[in-house]
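Components:
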Amino acid sequence: MDELGGEQAIRLLATMWRIRLFEERVGQLVRAGEIDGLIHLSTGQEGVAAAVCSQLRDDDHVYSGHRAHGHAIAQGASLGRVMAELMGRDTGLCRGLGGSMHLVDVEHGFMGATGVVGGNVPIALGSALAARLRGLDTVSVVFFGDGAVQAGHFTETVNLATLWRLPLILVCENNGFAEFTPRSAHTVVERVSDVVAPYGLGRVTVDGNDVQATWDAFGGFLQSARAGGGPFLLECLTHRVRGHYEGDPGRYREALAEEEWQEKDPIIRLERHGVAEEWFAEDELRGVAAGAAEEVEDAVRFGRESPLPPAGIVESMVYADA
Amino acid sequence: MAHELPYIAAILEAIQLEMERDESVLYFGQNMATTENEPFVDAFGNDRVRVTPISETAEIGIAIGAALAGYRPVVELYMAEFMLVAMDQVLNEAPRFRGMSGGQVTVPIVLKAGYGFTAGWAGQHTGTLSALFMGVPGLKVAVPSTAADAKGLMATAIRDDNPVVYLHHYLLTLDHGEVPDGEYLVPFGEASVRREGSDVTIVGTGWTVDRALGAAERLAGEGIQAEVIDPRTIAPLDLQTILESVDKTGHLVLVDQATRHASVSTVIAGEVAEHGFGSLKAPIVQVTGLDATIPYSEPLEAYVLPDDDKVVAAVQRVLGTAHVTA
Amino acid sequence: MSAPQGVEKLEREHLVWIYRQMSRIREFEERVKRTFEEHPGVIRGHTHLADGAEASIVGSIANLGPDDWFFTTYRCHGYPIARGTDPKVMMAEIYGRKDGLCKGLGGSMHLTDVSNGFLGTSGIVGAGIPHATGAAWAAQIRGKGQVVLCFFGDGASKQGAFFESLNIASLWKLPIVFVMENNGYNVHTRTEQEDANRAAGEDLSVKAKAFSMPGVTIDGRDPLEVYETVRTAVVRARAGEGPTLVESQMYRLSAHGNIIAPPGVPLHFPEHEAIEKFGAPEEYEAAKQGDPVPAFRGRLVADGVLTGEEAAAIAEEVREELQAAVDFGLQSPFPEVETALEYTYA
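Structure:
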């Protein structure tokens, strides 16, 4: 298993800054009316996406839910093509057909996001089955929130994954809220890892905003899964800074005070950690955020300059050709 | 007496009035009843108003069980597509129990769901599934297009002893309308003639009623008087009103946001072809959504959906008055 | 009326009642099965028998009071019998006749008897679990101390509806007892082939931990153990403390159901899957040795609760009762065809 060291940590920070600044920019564009539709931002949860996806390969399969931008980006999707997709352009990942909740980037193994909570969990299991049948060492990873755990198809999947011992890694971003309601409205069981406990799969709960801890935990599972083990569940306790969707007035919870967020922020913590570990010096970090900001602006420009898709592509995308 | 309300508020007003009137009415679903000062919780308490986890199969199944036990649950499902997660409970459980038990039980549930989120909500949130529920014996389907109808149909749905799928269109959410005060019931199986005319009959449901009305305005400018009919409920379906209109106008255009073979319009077309053949002076024309998963990008989304222009063109085709462009 | 109705200490009359109900269920199911041979064509479609489950069924139902409700599965004959539904109208229903419990409209898989708290049966695996949960919510609102028993098989415990319902029942502390009858098979799949817990050699009641719910595994062939365990759970539920998952282990003595065959092929009951499919006749033989009905009879006679003559008298009464049920069913006319349209809408 790879250690999280200097080089890797800088790369993770770059990914996290890319996601952070991308999401911020998308929020602005939504408010300005340049991006429409239903948008869910992953601001605050970057640590999980980065720690997990940076250890994966392009031939692994990654699935996500409606809050998928960060996962797609962490898995290697180009910022420009994601932005263009959100702007409904022909150069978007899905030629403007999918939008925010339906990003797909097969080239990088990002097999899809879904708008139906938990919908991709059984699908991810299918990819894990395929990997095992082919005798490959690839894994299938699915990101979902704590809300998805109460949907019946979640445990249906856990039963089969455990029974068949498949290389599926379930990554739960437990931010304590499912849409507009706290976890306590959904179940009496606080920890997602306790919900799956009866099935005996390898599982652990980590502070999802502690990139080192998340990296280590996921890395351990990944190594096992590639060697024929599985399934595993990684519960990442994290925090969703924005509302459920852009436009959500968020009256159902108390906003975190700025100081409190500073303590939790995965980016700040990784920077501090890296400096403390002497992986890098503080002044080396300045360029990272700036570089990400530039990439994001390039992406916005790319999106704005891209053409809209021609109406005719709609019919051609309904069925695969015979 | 009447007051102005947005469509969505009219629906909630009906639920509130019914819950006041009948303490067996329950209202529950995801993302509700979790904080203080929620009007329904304040008024009716946590016994009758509850939040559920994301568990559509259980939510709808629980509604059925509570109904079998004498209550009248209204399930807040938010989006019609979420019913797909639990289609067994909707199509194969709720409507079947009365028949299978030889009439011993009733299942008075209301499945309330928004549909047609065609505002960039993309492939899985924007469908129009109304016709999936038509033709399931035991199931009724209401599709209001105005605030007043939204209130009246919800009240009727709650009082109906059968399972009702109540679909309210997302794009109509904030449409204001005059809503009668107090108790107001719109019967099922009674279409509304929204505009009278004698040249062509246009039938639409939900959001497409406005497409039909918009087209009718433009056509009036060309001297064509369109009669616009809104069935309001598609199960039961008021075929009689449609047939009478077709008898008068001789021409029929059907508008539906759903895809053609899964549309209400296809069902109506079949019925009119069989029962109103003698009245028709031209073939029936349907304006439906195109056969595609609704795309995200705005111009593509618009491309696949019906609009006023497409309805106008259809009428012109039916009347043989289409302008030929050089 | 010697139904225990949840009494804390079972007296002789209760024990005899339990034995009688078990016998009635066994005889009913035998007569259903014999109908395929003796009156071919009378039973159509698919029917599922509860022979082997009598101890669990009666031990559970014996805990219900007059206002309580229960829900079950397509294997539904036993429960209403124990609850007091007339076997005559049940048989007529299974024969599709006008005098049937559901006027011939439901058939074997959809028995309903509202007068006995039997509010309706789904034939879809797991689908009744949310229904029972909803009835429990109704009971909670009413606040009259009603309880709901929800019966399902081990096969249903992999269905999404199971997880969703148990989670909500636990969250809302609903007055419900979930009774999972684990007979080792789901149609012709063995539990360990489809269940991660069973495959790991665990009891299925461990699934309850996912909901912070008490779970217990018992020998479903001992009606008194079932009675006592379900009683504890019912008391807990009535007290507002929430649900319990009871895994009642047993063996199904008939095949899953009669064969499913295209029209023209006579329907019949095949041998149990252990014999027909898995080539394990010894498994079946062992299960037959543990048949709960003769076992309980033997125990009552050995304990002096019943004499041999009394047991024989009960057997004869039951035989007569069920013969009358078969005769009633066969003599009942078919419903008028218009009945098909009468109960679609309220």
